[in-house]
Amino acid sequence: MNYTNLFKIALKALAHNKMRAFLTMLGIIIGVASVITMIALGQGTQKSIQKEISSMGSNIIMIHPGGERRGGVRLDPSEMQTLKIQNFEALKKECMYVAAISPYATASGQLVCGNNNYPTSVTGAGIDYIEIRQLTIEDGTMFTESDIKTSAKVCVIGKTIVDNLFPDGSDPIGSTIRYNQVPLKVIGVLESKGYNSMGMDQDDIVLAPYTTVMKRMLAVTHFNGIFASALSEDVTEYATDEIRTILRREHRLKDSDPDDFMIRTQQELSDMMNTTMNLLTTLLACIAGISLLVGGIGIMNIMYVSVTERTKEIGLRMSVGARGIDILVQFLIEAVLISVTGGIIGILLGCSACLAVKYLANWPVYIQIWSVILSFAVCTVTGIFFGWYPARKAANLDPIDALRYE
Predict the structure, then answer these.
(1) Which domain holds residue 170?
(2) CA distance readout (Å), 48 to 133, 270, 272
(3) Residue 35 burial (CB < 10 Å; 0-12/13-18/19+)?
(4) For residue 57, is it within any domain?
(5) Are 273 and 50 in contact (CB under 8 A)?
(6) Taking the CB of residue 161, how many other CB atoms lie within 10 A of it?
(7) Domain count, the chain
(8) pLDDT tens profile 338-369
(9) pLDDT tens-digit map of 241-283
């Protein structure tokens, strides 16, 4: 068996029907390009979300009020008042695995400065809040513990607030803005962080002492939640257990009582997002993989047509000594050439599509090498699998019947 001659014969057969060969490749090309692009989009989105989560701090711990049943009805966690100042003080004093901790209380309303106004929310926080959330003061200063104790009417604002309340470019430091009827003196401006991958404006932020928000704006004695950061990512679980133990003691909960608070970590959020994005990526890849299946069926169909058209040729070759295995290998080579060539073109098209999406649509894209290798391997196997049956049919033809075929 001379494989070189068989390869040349297969190339001549494909060159004789260039358009038909290209149209047969088209299913493979689209399938491979789709798989690569879909996986790249899914992985790019996942990497972007992971980056956003990491930018918030991988060791962040978030404590929120928990839902409680009263009269058989589960209350909304936002209505619960289980997190008090004394709870925060106990956590701050006793937690050994916590590096920084800050309560927060949020009031939504309208900010006004001169003739300009902007709807937003004011977040009451402690001085550790910017460390926990990895925020940076670009101009001015952060409020102090003294400001917290005196419920001072001061605030630190983000770039979005500056742009909307000070559109003329004037320096906001030292200016007074009003939240409803409460005047707040701007003492600092935060460095811009832009939008995150979920479309949230991270610069639309106003920070004030939590006592100011609780007493002067909300008139409440409870927090919306507490933010903390563990000493390191490795001890986050220890810090979580420590916080749970202290809060259960502070709330006088029995061993049989469920927690009346919720503790979430960035790791939990990251794991949840990874699971969701992996599922989405798999789904996208499966949908794109259908194109490969259709392309394989196209190869089988065309190879059947080719066998039928070349029945006399097959009979002639067999009559001069060609064996069934030679005919089988020849048609297999044709099928594999179609699928491999289509796979190469599909890879180039898929990578080009990814770059186009990245730079033109500004969408996060991450091309996985394994997706390229897998797509190429699958298209090769597809050519062999779907080309085998027509090739075997050609190899099993009776030479006499083949010569008589019209």
Answers:
(1) 81-259
(2) 18, 12, 15
(3) buried
(4) no
(5) yes
(6) 24
(7) 2
(8) 888 888 888 899 889 888 888 887 888 888 78
(9) 999 999 999 888 888 888 888 888 877 666 777 777 778 777 7
